[in-house]
UniProtKB/TrEMBL annotation:
It holds the Pfam family ABM. Residues 1-89 form the ABM domain. This is Quinol monooxygenase. GO terms for molecular function: monooxygenase activity. Keywords: Monooxygenase, Oxidoreductase. PROSITE patterns: ABM (PS51725). InterPro entries: ABM_dom (IPR007138), AI-2_Isomerase_LsrG (IPR050744), Dimeric_a/b-barrel (IPR011008).
Length: 93
């Protein structure tokens, strides 16, 4: 199992756009065969977004990254982010 917490920091003017794009891929990602969890959270000050993800395997995660809707979000990130995405692979305790 692969567990990920991703911190996404959009430029302030693009926060709502970024949030909307991520909300737009929630259902499709959750329907992927290897996805066990894909949840979106926002910081209270609406500065950062957090994705909490769980995939069955690296192959399932790679398949997620290969999806057109995921690629579209990554392309949007190229000019929309104030900081690079911080991705942490975590282990359940």
């Amino acid at each position: 199992m692969i567990n990920i917490v991703a911190k996404i920091t959009p430029k302030a003017a693009l926060f709502d756009d970024c949030k909307g794009r991520l909300q737009g891929i929630l259902a499709a990602t959750r329907a992927e065969p290897g996805c066990h969890r894909f949840e979106l959270f926002a910081s209270k000050e609406q500065r950062c977004l957090f994705l909490v993800e769980q995939f069955e395997s690296q192959a399932a995660l790679d398949e997620h990254y290969a999806q057109p809707y995921t690629k579209a979000v990554f392309a949007f990130y190229e000019n929309a982010l104030a900081e690079p995405v911080e991705v942490e692979k975590v282990e359940e305790l």
